[in-house]
Amino acid sequence: MNIHGKDIKIFSCNANRPFAEQIARALGLPLGDMQVKTFSDGEIALSINESVRGSDVFVVQSTCQPVNNNLMELLISIDGFKRASAGRITAVMPYFGYARQDRKAKARDPISAKLVADLLTTAGADRVLTMDLHAAQIQGFFNIPVDHLLGVPILANHYADKFKNTPHDEIVVVSPDLGSVTRARKFAERVDASLAIIDKRRPTANVSEVMNIIGDVRDKTCILVDDMVDTAGTLCNGANALVTKGGARQVFACATHGVLSGPALDRIEESVLKEVVFLDTIPQRHNTASGKLKELSVASVFAEAINRIYSDRSVSPLLG
Q1: What are 150-168's pLDDT values in tens digits?
Q2: I need a labelling partner for 130 at 20 to 30 A (CA). Which of 38, 88, 165, 307 fits?
Q3: Residue in 6, 164, 200, 294 annotated catalytic
């Protein structure tokens, strides 16, 4: 593996090309000439139309819906760059699919996140750049460097500005479950607010039941903080519980990844939530007139991370 390529080249698969274009624009570079197509039987065909020999190649692809197609596009493109003698290949994955399958929850479960890590390494990736893995320990599934960016600073800055004229003791940051407490605590420190936790159980996948609210939210403005929103069941149940059980005055929410599958949009629209903010790690293809959804861009953060990786500088300043 080369430590440093001769130049930077940014390429994009099909999951989120506008995001890759923003990254390239922020770096003052053209987007690399690559086409990823599909044969009539569903097989993926790749064409790299420029030389990458000795270059530092960054291939941008979120493994969001359709997850398996997008993952295969990424693996095949990495293999193509390796065989084209790229100096170093970085898989830029704003959203890392399969991250929720990071352990054996019951007997005979696969650990699919580890499998994906192995596939990326075997394909030829020299490092991975991603944001807000569902479980941070997934970094340990790789035997290559993983640069793990955080969405909390961007989201917290948005709400710090939004509520800059609101007394801090009237704002409560809420973790939707026990597993998200660390993220919510960091968020609360940034907006100088108190912390509350929703205690829940999950009887089956994509189904959650609120059990109790730990902390005082009565007559407060609550901000629910999570890493991702999939079917929005946890988010909307939590928001409703904050109002009906906890007596909250109003509830806002934010998450890094807006997966928004199944009934997610309808649930958000019908919930008590005033606003839901996502980062643009996943392209939002929904058509809705709802004023509840807001998107913030993190392309500039990824661009700066890529610039630092290429120039062998620390990425850690971007975490603060």
Answers
A1: 999 999 999 999 999 999 8
A2: 38
A3: 200
